Amino acid sequence: MLRYWVGLNMVEGVGPIKLRQRLERGDSLESLCAEFKAPLDLADQQITAAEKNNIHILQLADPKYPEILKQIHDPPQVLYLRGELVKGETAVAIVGTRRASAYGLECARRLASGLAGCGLTVVSGLAMGIDAAAHEGALAAGGRTIAVLGGGVDAPTPYCNANLAVEISKSGAVLSEYPLGQKPRTWSFPRRNRIVSGLCRAVIVVEGGEKSGALITARMAMEQGREVMAVPGRIDSELSRGPHSLIKDGAKLVETIDDVLVELNMSPIKTEASTRPPAVSQLTLEEERILVLLGREPKHLDVLAADLSVPGYTLSALLLSLEMKKAVQQLPGQYYVVL
Protein backbone atom coordinates (compact mmCIF):
# COMPACT_ATOMS: atom_id res chain seq x y z
CA MET A 1 0.00 0.00 0.00
CA LEU A 2 2.78 2.46 0.94
CA ARG A 3 4.46 2.02 -2.46
CA TYR A 4 1.27 3.32 -4.16
CA TRP A 5 1.24 6.46 -2.01
CA VAL A 6 4.94 7.07 -2.56
CA GLY A 7 4.62 6.44 -6.29
CA LEU A 8 1.71 8.85 -6.72
CA ASN A 9 3.56 11.42 -4.65
CA MET A 10 6.32 11.32 -7.27
CA VAL A 11 3.99 12.19 -10.18
CA GLU A 12 4.07 15.90 -11.03
CA GLY A 13 0.61 17.40 -11.38
CA VAL A 14 -1.02 14.92 -9.01
CA GLY A 15 -1.33 16.89 -5.79
CA PRO A 16 -3.12 16.16 -2.51
CA ILE A 17 -6.41 17.77 -3.59
CA LYS A 18 -6.70 15.92 -6.92
CA LEU A 19 -5.76 12.65 -5.29
CA ARG A 20 -8.29 13.09 -2.48
CA GLN A 21 -11.06 13.94 -4.95
CA ARG A 22 -10.40 10.86 -7.04
CA LEU A 23 -10.29 8.59 -4.00
CA GLU A 24 -13.57 10.05 -2.76
CA ARG A 25 -15.09 9.19 -6.14
CA GLY A 26 -14.23 5.56 -5.53
CA ASP A 27 -11.04 5.16 -7.53
CA SER A 28 -8.51 2.77 -6.05
CA LEU A 29 -4.88 3.59 -5.41
CA GLU A 30 -3.83 0.83 -7.79
CA SER A 31 -5.98 2.16 -10.63
CA LEU A 32 -4.73 5.71 -10.07
CA CYS A 33 -1.14 4.50 -10.18
CA ALA A 34 -1.84 2.87 -13.52
CA GLU A 35 -3.67 5.93 -14.90
CA PHE A 36 -0.99 8.43 -13.87
CA LYS A 37 1.89 6.06 -14.64
CA ALA A 38 3.24 6.26 -11.11
CA PRO A 39 6.88 5.05 -11.00
CA LEU A 40 6.36 2.17 -8.58
CA ASP A 41 9.87 0.83 -9.17
CA LEU A 42 11.27 4.17 -7.99
CA ALA A 43 8.80 4.13 -5.10
CA ASP A 44 10.23 0.79 -3.97
CA GLN A 45 13.72 2.29 -4.14
CA GLN A 46 12.56 5.23 -2.03
CA ILE A 47 11.14 2.94 0.64
CA THR A 48 14.32 0.83 0.72
CA ALA A 49 16.57 3.92 0.92
CA ALA A 50 14.43 5.37 3.70
CA GLU A 51 14.69 2.19 5.76
CA LYS A 52 18.47 2.10 5.34
CA ASN A 53 18.83 5.73 6.44
CA ASN A 54 16.42 5.66 9.39
CA ILE A 55 13.90 7.86 7.59
CA HIS A 56 10.19 7.29 8.20
CA ILE A 57 7.64 7.66 5.41
CA LEU A 58 4.22 8.63 6.73
CA GLN A 59 1.05 8.66 4.68
CA LEU A 60 -2.07 10.51 5.76
CA ALA A 61 -3.65 7.58 7.62
CA ASP A 62 -0.47 6.79 9.59
CA PRO A 63 -1.00 7.19 13.37
CA LYS A 64 2.23 9.22 13.52
CA TYR A 65 0.98 11.76 10.97
CA PRO A 66 0.41 15.13 12.74
CA GLU A 67 -3.29 15.59 13.47
CA ILE A 68 -3.08 19.38 13.21
CA LEU A 69 -1.65 19.13 9.69
CA LYS A 70 -4.60 17.01 8.57
CA GLN A 71 -6.86 20.01 9.24
CA ILE A 72 -5.50 22.15 6.37
CA HIS A 73 -7.08 22.23 2.92
CA ASP A 74 -4.30 20.32 1.16
CA PRO A 75 -2.28 18.22 3.63
CA PRO A 76 0.58 16.27 2.04
CA GLN A 77 -0.38 12.71 1.26
CA VAL A 78 3.15 11.62 2.12
CA LEU A 79 5.69 12.97 4.63
CA TYR A 80 9.33 11.98 4.85
CA LEU A 81 10.51 12.22 8.46
CA ARG A 82 13.98 12.16 9.96
CA GLY A 83 13.75 12.30 13.74
CA GLU A 84 10.59 12.05 15.81
CA LEU A 85 7.23 13.81 16.05
CA VAL A 86 5.47 14.14 19.40
CA LYS A 87 1.75 13.45 19.34
CA GLY A 88 -0.29 16.53 20.28
CA GLU A 89 2.72 18.85 20.67
CA THR A 90 1.98 22.59 20.57
CA ALA A 91 4.08 24.29 17.93
CA VAL A 92 4.81 27.88 16.89
CA ALA A 93 6.54 28.87 13.65
CA ILE A 94 9.18 31.59 13.56
CA VAL A 95 9.99 32.71 10.02
CA GLY A 96 11.66 35.62 8.27
CA THR A 97 14.21 36.83 5.78
CA ARG A 98 17.45 35.12 4.82
CA ARG A 99 19.22 38.51 4.87
CA ALA A 100 18.47 39.24 8.50
CA SER A 101 19.94 42.05 10.58
CA ALA A 102 21.72 41.44 13.87
CA TYR A 103 18.56 42.70 15.60
CA GLY A 104 16.36 40.22 13.72
CA LEU A 105 18.68 37.28 14.45
CA GLU A 106 18.74 38.14 18.15
CA CYS A 107 14.95 38.47 18.31
CA ALA A 108 14.39 35.14 16.54
CA ARG A 109 16.93 33.35 18.70
CA ARG A 110 15.58 34.75 21.98
CA LEU A 111 11.94 34.13 21.12
CA ALA A 112 12.69 30.57 20.04
CA SER A 113 14.76 29.90 23.15
CA GLY A 114 12.06 31.29 25.43
CA LEU A 115 9.20 29.44 23.74
CA ALA A 116 11.13 26.17 23.64
CA GLY A 117 11.92 26.65 27.32
CA CYS A 118 8.15 26.79 27.94
CA GLY A 119 7.66 23.44 26.24
CA LEU A 120 6.55 24.67 22.82
CA THR A 121 8.01 23.25 19.62
CA VAL A 122 9.58 25.79 17.25
CA VAL A 123 8.99 25.23 13.53
CA SER A 124 10.86 26.88 10.68
CA GLY A 125 12.36 26.19 7.25
CA LEU A 126 16.13 25.74 7.87
CA ALA A 127 16.97 28.69 5.59
CA MET A 128 19.81 31.05 6.39
CA GLY A 129 18.95 34.05 8.55
CA ILE A 130 15.84 34.05 10.73
CA ASP A 131 14.98 30.37 10.17
CA ALA A 132 18.40 29.12 11.27
CA ALA A 133 18.42 31.50 14.26
CA ALA A 134 15.04 30.14 15.39
CA HIS A 135 16.22 26.53 15.19
CA GLU A 136 19.44 27.41 17.03
CA GLY A 137 17.56 29.23 19.78
CA ALA A 138 15.28 26.27 20.42
CA LEU A 139 18.21 23.84 20.51
CA ALA A 140 20.18 26.10 22.85
CA ALA A 141 17.27 25.97 25.32
CA GLY A 142 17.23 22.17 25.15
CA GLY A 143 13.85 22.25 23.40
CA ARG A 144 12.32 20.72 20.31
CA THR A 145 12.37 22.21 16.85
CA ILE A 146 11.09 21.03 13.46
CA ALA A 147 12.64 21.95 10.10
CA VAL A 148 10.39 21.72 7.03
CA LEU A 149 12.39 21.44 3.82
CA GLY A 150 11.77 22.35 0.19
CA GLY A 151 13.67 19.27 -0.97
CA GLY A 152 14.50 15.77 0.19
CA VAL A 153 15.33 15.21 3.86
CA ASP A 154 18.39 13.17 2.91
CA ALA A 155 20.21 16.23 1.50
CA PRO A 156 19.12 19.33 3.46
CA THR A 157 19.73 22.74 1.92
CA PRO A 158 21.30 25.21 2.21
CA TYR A 159 24.36 23.02 2.62
CA CYS A 160 25.81 25.40 5.21
CA ASN A 161 22.96 24.32 7.52
CA ALA A 162 23.42 20.57 6.97
CA ASN A 163 25.00 20.11 10.41
CA LEU A 164 22.16 22.10 11.96
CA ALA A 165 19.69 19.68 10.35
CA VAL A 166 21.53 16.77 11.94
CA GLU A 167 21.29 18.40 15.38
CA ILE A 168 17.59 19.12 14.85
CA SER A 169 16.85 15.49 13.97
CA LYS A 170 18.45 14.26 17.21
CA SER A 171 15.84 15.90 19.46
CA GLY A 172 13.20 17.12 16.98
CA ALA A 173 12.36 16.43 13.37
CA VAL A 174 13.30 17.25 9.79
CA LEU A 175 10.29 16.95 7.46
CA SER A 176 9.51 17.12 3.75
CA GLU A 177 6.79 16.04 1.36
CA TYR A 178 9.36 15.72 -1.43
CA PRO A 179 11.04 12.42 -2.39
CA LEU A 180 14.51 11.49 -1.25
CA GLY A 181 17.16 12.95 -3.50
CA GLN A 182 14.97 15.76 -4.84
CA LYS A 183 16.66 19.13 -4.93
CA PRO A 184 14.61 22.24 -4.06
CA ARG A 185 12.92 24.05 -6.93
CA THR A 186 11.63 27.60 -7.12
CA TRP A 187 8.03 26.52 -6.59
CA SER A 188 8.78 24.02 -3.84
CA PHE A 189 9.45 26.64 -1.14
CA PRO A 190 6.03 28.39 -1.34
CA ARG A 191 4.36 24.96 -1.23
CA ARG A 192 6.57 23.99 1.71
CA ASN A 193 5.35 27.03 3.63
CA ARG A 194 1.81 25.65 3.98
CA ILE A 195 3.30 22.78 6.00
CA VAL A 196 5.28 25.17 8.22
CA SER A 197 2.09 27.04 9.13
CA GLY A 198 -0.08 23.92 9.08
CA LEU A 199 1.94 22.28 11.84
CA CYS A 200 1.49 25.26 14.16
CA ARG A 201 -1.04 27.13 16.21
CA ALA A 202 0.68 30.42 15.40
CA VAL A 203 3.20 31.95 12.98
CA ILE A 204 5.57 34.73 14.07
CA VAL A 205 7.23 36.83 11.37
CA VAL A 206 10.61 38.39 12.26
CA GLU A 207 11.84 40.69 9.45
CA GLY A 208 10.97 40.41 5.78
CA GLY A 209 9.97 42.47 2.80
CA GLU A 210 6.37 42.89 1.72
CA LYS A 211 6.76 40.17 -0.93
CA SER A 212 8.95 37.81 1.09
CA GLY A 213 8.36 34.11 1.61
CA ALA A 214 7.68 34.81 5.27
CA LEU A 215 4.59 36.79 4.29
CA ILE A 216 3.46 33.92 2.07
CA THR A 217 3.63 31.73 5.17
CA ALA A 218 1.67 34.34 7.14
CA ARG A 219 -1.06 34.47 4.49
CA MET A 220 -1.30 30.69 4.47
CA ALA A 221 -1.55 30.72 8.25
CA MET A 222 -4.50 33.12 8.03
CA GLU A 223 -6.23 30.87 5.49
CA GLN A 224 -5.65 27.89 7.78
CA GLY A 225 -7.13 29.69 10.78
CA ARG A 226 -3.82 30.02 12.63
CA GLU A 227 -2.76 33.02 14.72
CA VAL A 228 -0.45 35.46 12.93
CA MET A 229 2.03 37.56 14.92
CA ALA A 230 4.90 39.87 14.02
CA VAL A 231 7.94 41.44 15.66
CA PRO A 232 8.23 45.20 14.98
CA GLY A 233 11.49 46.63 13.66
CA ARG A 234 13.10 49.92 12.67
CA ILE A 235 10.72 52.18 10.76
CA ASP A 236 13.44 53.04 8.23
CA SER A 237 14.34 49.42 7.44
CA GLU A 238 13.10 47.57 4.37
CA LEU A 239 13.14 44.41 6.50
CA SER A 240 10.43 45.89 8.75
CA ARG A 241 7.91 46.42 5.96
CA GLY A 242 6.56 42.89 6.08
CA PRO A 243 6.00 42.62 9.84
CA HIS A 244 4.66 46.20 10.03
CA SER A 245 2.22 45.47 7.20
CA LEU A 246 0.95 42.43 9.09
CA ILE A 247 0.57 44.42 12.31
CA LYS A 248 -1.44 47.09 10.45
CA ASP A 249 -3.70 44.31 9.17
CA GLY A 250 -4.35 43.03 12.68
CA ALA A 251 -1.48 40.67 13.46
CA LYS A 252 -0.48 40.46 17.11
CA LEU A 253 2.55 42.63 17.93
CA VAL A 254 5.17 40.52 19.69
CA GLU A 255 7.75 41.97 22.05
CA THR A 256 8.22 39.08 24.50
CA ILE A 257 7.26 35.43 24.74
CA ASP A 258 4.43 36.46 27.07
CA ASP A 259 2.70 38.11 24.08
CA VAL A 260 2.75 34.75 22.31
CA LEU A 261 1.66 32.71 25.32
CA VAL A 262 -1.29 35.00 26.08
CA GLU A 263 -2.48 34.76 22.47
CA LEU A 264 -2.36 30.96 22.74
CA ASN A 265 -4.28 31.06 26.05
CA MET A 266 -1.25 29.79 27.93
CA SER A 267 0.04 31.14 31.24
CA PRO A 268 2.56 33.97 30.78
CA ILE A 269 6.00 33.67 32.29
CA LYS A 270 6.58 35.96 35.26
CA THR A 271 10.36 35.92 34.95
CA GLU A 272 12.54 37.03 32.09
CA ALA A 273 14.85 34.07 32.58
CA SER A 274 13.40 32.13 29.66
CA THR A 275 14.01 35.01 27.26
CA ARG A 276 17.65 35.44 28.14
CA PRO A 277 20.34 34.03 25.85
CA PRO A 278 22.23 30.97 27.07
CA ALA A 279 24.80 31.70 29.75
CA VAL A 280 28.27 32.41 28.42
CA SER A 281 31.01 30.06 29.63
CA GLN A 282 34.10 31.35 31.41
CA LEU A 283 35.89 33.76 29.07
CA THR A 284 39.60 34.42 28.68
CA LEU A 285 40.93 37.99 28.78
CA GLU A 286 41.38 37.94 24.99
CA GLU A 287 37.77 36.82 24.51
CA GLU A 288 36.49 39.53 26.83
CA ARG A 289 38.40 42.16 24.79
CA ILE A 290 36.73 40.88 21.63
CA LEU A 291 33.23 41.17 23.14
CA VAL A 292 33.91 44.72 24.31
CA LEU A 293 35.05 45.82 20.86
CA LEU A 294 32.45 43.83 18.93
CA GLY A 295 29.19 45.13 20.40
CA ARG A 296 25.70 44.57 18.99
CA GLU A 297 26.34 45.86 15.47
CA PRO A 298 28.00 43.47 12.96
CA LYS A 299 31.73 44.00 12.46
CA HIS A 300 33.93 42.49 9.77
CA LEU A 301 36.73 40.10 10.72
CA ASP A 302 39.41 42.33 9.16
CA VAL A 303 38.17 45.45 10.99
CA LEU A 304 38.08 43.60 14.29
CA ALA A 305 41.60 42.21 13.71
CA ALA A 306 42.90 45.73 13.07
CA ASP A 307 41.18 47.07 16.20
CA LEU A 308 42.73 44.31 18.31
CA SER A 309 46.11 44.37 16.53
CA VAL A 310 46.15 40.58 16.18
CA PRO A 311 46.68 38.36 13.11
CA GLY A 312 43.56 37.17 11.32
CA TYR A 313 44.27 33.48 12.01
CA THR A 314 44.58 34.17 15.75
CA LEU A 315 41.34 36.13 15.79
CA SER A 316 39.53 33.39 13.83
CA ALA A 317 40.46 30.83 16.48
CA LEU A 318 39.25 33.12 19.27
CA LEU A 319 35.97 33.82 17.47
CA LEU A 320 35.40 30.11 16.94
CA SER A 321 35.83 29.60 20.68
CA LEU A 322 33.31 32.38 21.36
CA GLU A 323 30.84 30.84 18.91
CA MET A 324 31.09 27.51 20.74
CA LYS A 325 30.39 29.36 23.99
CA LYS A 326 27.29 30.94 22.39
CA ALA A 327 28.76 34.41 22.90
CA VAL A 328 29.01 35.56 19.28
CA GLN A 329 27.31 34.76 15.99
CA GLN A 330 28.99 34.65 12.59
CA LEU A 331 26.99 36.34 9.83
CA PRO A 332 27.45 35.98 6.07
CA GLY A 333 30.52 37.72 4.66
CA GLN A 334 32.79 37.16 7.72
CA TYR A 335 30.83 39.57 9.90
CA TYR A 336 30.38 38.88 13.61
CA VAL A 337 27.99 40.13 16.28
CA VAL A 338 27.57 39.64 20.02
CA LEU A 339 24.59 37.49 21.07
Model description:
About 4% of the residues have low confidence. The chain is built from 15 helices and twelve strands. It is globular. The strands form two sheets. A nine-stranded mixed beta sheet has the order 1-2-6-5-4-3-7-8-9, with helices on both faces. A three-stranded antiparallel beta sheet has the order 10-12-11. It folds into three domains: 52 residues, no CATH class; 185 residues, Rossmann fold (3-Layer(aba) Sandwich), CATH 3.40.50.450; 54 residues, Winged helix-like DNA-binding domain superfamily/Winged helix DNA-binding domain (Arc Repressor Mutant, subunit A). α9 packs across α10. The longest helix is centred in the N-terminal third of the chain and has 16 residues. With 339 residues, it is α/β, with parallel strands linked by helices. α8 links the parallel β5 and β6.
